[in-house]
Design brief:
InterPro entries: cNMP-bd_dom (IPR000595), cNMP-bd_dom_sf (IPR018490), Env_Response_Regulators (IPR050397), HTH_CRP (IPR012318), RmlC-like_jellyroll (IPR014710), WH-like_DNA-bd_sf (IPR036388), WH_DNA-bd_sf (IPR036390). The chain contains six helices and twelve strands. It is of the alpha+beta class. It has a four-stranded antiparallel beta sheet.
Length: about 240
Amino acid sequence: MEVTKIKRDIDLISDELARLLTSISTPRKVKAGNFLFQEGEDASEIYLINTGMFQISQLTPDGKQLNLRICKEKDIIGELTLFTANPKYMLSALALADSEVLVIKNDLLEEKLLKNADLTFEFMKWLNNHLRKFQTKIRDLVMNGKKGALYSTLIRFSNSYGVKVADGILIDIHLTNQEFAKFCCATRESVNRMLRDLKKSNVIDTTNDGRIIVKDLEYLKNEIGCENCPIEICNID
C-alpha cells in the first residue's frame, strides 16, 4: 500500500478555479525528450498536464542541472510567470514521456482572475505554497550540504512515491544514481558513495532492479534536523 497519496495541483484548488483553467485552455502534445519550455525563454503561457510526465529543473550558477520536481497528470507548470512584467521562465520543463498539456495564455488568465477577487486570492495562495516548496528544497541544499541534500531527496521521494513493504518504504520509481544526483546538485560519484554508506548502515537497501528501500526514515530526518513539514510541502512533486 502507498504511504500517502499526494494530491496533484488541480486537486488542491476549487472546482470553480479548475473549471476556469480548463475552459480557457487549448491542448498541445509534447514528445518524450522535448522541452515544453526552457529557463530564460519569454513566458506567455502556463500549462496543466493532461497526460504524461515532466521533469522541472534549473541550472545552477556553475552550470549544473538541479532537478526540482517531477510533475504528472493534473499538475500545473510554468505558474511562476503569472502577474509578472516581461516574464521569463525561471525553470525548464522536459517531457519524460509522450505527453499532452492544456495551454493557458497568461494574459487571458490574468484578465479572468482580475474580474474575480476570490479566485485571484485563491490562486495567489496556491502559488505561495509552491514557492514555499521551492524554498525548502533550496534550504536543504544550502544548509545541509550534499549529504543533507541526498537525505532530504530520499525523504521527499518516500513521501511522493513510497510504498510500504515488510522492511521499510519502497521508493517505487526507477531512477539512476545520476538522476538522483541531479536532485541533490551533486556528482554521481558522491551519490554512489553516500548511498553505499547508507546501505552499510542499514538505513537503506535496494531491490534487484535498483529501486531504493528506505529502512530507517527517522535516521534521515534526524540527520537533517527535519521540521516535519506537511507532506504537501515535503514532496518531490
